[in-house]
Design a protein that fits this description.
This protein is of the alpha/beta class. It folds into two domains: 5-80 and 204-274, Rossmann fold (3-Layer(aba) Sandwich); 84-200, 2-Layer Sandwich (Hypothetical Protein, Haloacid Dehalogenase-like Hydrolase, Chain: A, domain 2), CATH 3.30.1240. The chain has ten helices and 13 strands. It has helices spanning 23-34, 52-55, 84-97, 115-127, 140-143, 168-177, 205-216, 233-238, 250-255, 267-274; strands at 5-8, 38-41, 61-64, 69-72, 75-79, 101-105, 108-111, 158-164, 181-186, 195-200, 223-227, 241-244, 258-259. Helix 1 runs parallel beside helix 10. The longest helix has 14 residues, at 84-97. It is globular and about 55 Å long. This is Cof subfamily of IIB subfamily of haloacid dehalogenase superfamily/HAD-superfamily hydrolase, subfamily IIB.
C-alpha cells in the first residue's frame, strides 16, 4: 500500500465544538499509521492548546497557528512569530478598543484581564453544537483548561492573537488597521463570527503543508486533507484529495472532493474507510 500524508484540522474535524474526541477517530488514526500512513493535525491552535488527550494519539508531527509552526518527527521545521514590537501594537489597540483577547503561544494561552468574565457567553455559543447537553454551563476555564490569567501580555513568543467580537465592526476595524497582517474570524457551527484573530500575513495551512512536504521530499499526489471551515479550504485545494466534514460550512462542502459524515457521527473513521486508509 502506498503511504499517504494525511492532514487533519482539529476543531470541527478531529474534535467537536465541545472539545469531545470520538474514540472512532483515535482508532482510525492509529490503524492508518500502522498501515504506513503519516497523520498530522493542522490547526489554528498553538501547541499549548494541544492537550494531552490529543498528543497521546501519537501524531507524526504537528502544524499549528494556522501554519506558522511546523514540526515533524520531533524536529521543528518552521516557526514564524509576531515580533515583540508588533505584538505590543496589537495588544494596545485591543485594549484601547475595550476588546477581551488572549495570546496564543507555544508556551501557553495568556488571557487579558476581562477575558474570563466577558468570554463566558462566547464559549457557550461556541460549544452550542447540535444542542448538546451541558453547553449552557460551559465556562472559559472548561473551554481553555490550561489558560493563564495572570501572565505577561507584552511578549515575544506569540503565534497569533484571538479576540472576542462585540460586533462585526470590530473585525472590520481590525482588518483595516492591521492591513499588513492576516485578520480573520472564527466561531462555532456555521462559522458564526464569534472571535477575530490577527496573525502574520502570507501564512496558511497550505503554505505549511507545502513546507513539510518539501522537507520530506514527498509528492503532493500522496496527500489527503480534512477540514470543516473556510480556513481549511487552501489545504483541501492543495492536497490531492480534499475531504469536508458533514458539519462543515457551505463553502468547504461545495469545493471538497468528498463529503463525509459529521465529526460526532464517526465522520473521520468513515472517510478513512472510504479512502482505503483503513479496512
Amino acid at each position: 500500500m502506498e503511504s499517504n500524508y494525511v492532514f487533519l484540522d482539529v476543531d470541527g474535524t478531529l474534535v467537536d465544538y465541545s472539545n469531545e474526541l470520538p474514540n472512532s477517530a483515535v482508532k482510525a488514526i492509529k490503524v492508518a499509521q500502522a498501515n504506513g500512513h503519516k497523520v498530522y493535525p493542522v490547526t489554528g491552535r498553538s501547541k499549548a492548546e494541544m492537550y494531552d488527550e490529543l498528543l497521546e494519539i501519537g501524531f507524526d508531527g504537528y502544524i499549528g497557528g494556522n501554519g506558522n509552526y511546523v514540526e515533524s518527527d520531533n524536529e521543528v521545521i518552521l516557526h514564524q512569530l509576531i515580533t515583540a514590537e508588533q505584538e505590543k501594537m496589537i495588544v494596545d489597540w485591543l485594549n484601547n478598543r475595550g476588546l477581551a483577547f488572549y495570546l496564543e503561544s507555544n508556551n501557553g494561552l495568556f488571557a487579558s484581564e476581562q477575558f474570563e468574565t466577558r468570554g463566558e457567553q462566547t464559549v457557550k455559543d461556541y460549544a452550542a453544537y447540535k444542542e448538546k447537553s451541558g453547553t449552557e454551563t460551559m465556562t472559559v476555564r472548561q473551554a481553555f483548561p490550561e489558560m493563564i490569567f495572570d501572565g505577561q501580555l507584552y511578549r515575544a513568543d506569540v503565534n497569533k492573537i484571538s479576540f472576542i467580537l462585540e460586533e462585526y465592526e470590530d473585525y472590520l476595524a481590525a482588518a483595516d488597521f492591521f492591513s499588513d497582517f492576516q485578520v480573520g474570524t472564527w466561531g462555532g457551527i456555521g462559522e458564526q463570527a464569534l472571535f477575530g484573530d490577527i496573525a502574520l500575513a502570507n501564512i496558511t495551512k497550505q503554505t505549511a503543508i507545502k513546507k513539510l512536504l518539501e522537507h520530506h521530499g514527498v509528492d503532493r499526489k500522496n496527500t489527503i486533507a480534512f477540514g470543516d471551515a473556510k480556513v481549511d479550504i487552501p489545504m483541501l485545494e492543495y492536497c490531492e484529495i480534499g475531504v469536508a466534514m458533514g458539519n462543515g460550512g457551505k463553502e468547504i462542502t461545495a469545493m471538497a472532493d468528498h463529503i463525509t459524515d459529521s465529526v460526532d457521527n464517526d465522520g473521520l473513521e468513515k472517510a478513512f474507510l472510504h479512502l482505503g486508509l483503513i479496512e
